[in-house]
Amino acid sequence: MPLTRNAKLELIKQVRLFAECTNAELSEVALSTDEREAPEGERLTVEGERGREFFVLVEGTVAVRRGGRKLADLGPGDWFGEIAILTYKQRTATVTATSAVRLLVISDRAFRRVVETTPRIALKVLRTVAERLEHDARS
Q1: Which of 9, 32, 53, 55 is most buried (CB neighbours < 10 A)?
Q2: Which of 59, 93, 94 is nearest to 75 (CA)?
Q3: ∠ CA 76-37-34 to the nearest 5 degrees?
Q4: Helices (H), 38-118
Q5: Are 50 and 59 contacting, i.e. CB atoms less than 8 angstroms apart?
Q6: What pLDDT does residue 21 have?
Q7: Which pLDDT score is estimated for 17?
Q8: Per-residue pLDDT averaged across 100-121, rounded?
């Protein structure tokens, strides 16, 4: 059963990325998201493919791999998929569900709109991208 707008807002409020947002900003994000569930083992992103979605992990865990090498494990409150959308390039990693997962998914257009209109979110996303790219450079 799909989440109601209020239930979606409550989920979004629990995500670190959106923690400092105003209620108006949270409402904009809620309007831009779809809920999705995926079983353990499903590949949510594939390295080298075009990125069309940004994902926020609500429940469950995922593994992030590049070239077959594990880069990270992510859990509730973490997000992924932003690098391909922001850079207009292919996915930099494959993300696979390591348990059943529940996600909020934002399309590339909606994600760009949220980032362009919500400076608090933009700064957090850019900080995360910089950290991930720095980590990649060291690896």
Answers
A1: 55
A2: 59
A3: 85
A4: 82-87, 108-117
A5: no
A6: 80
A7: 76
A8: 87
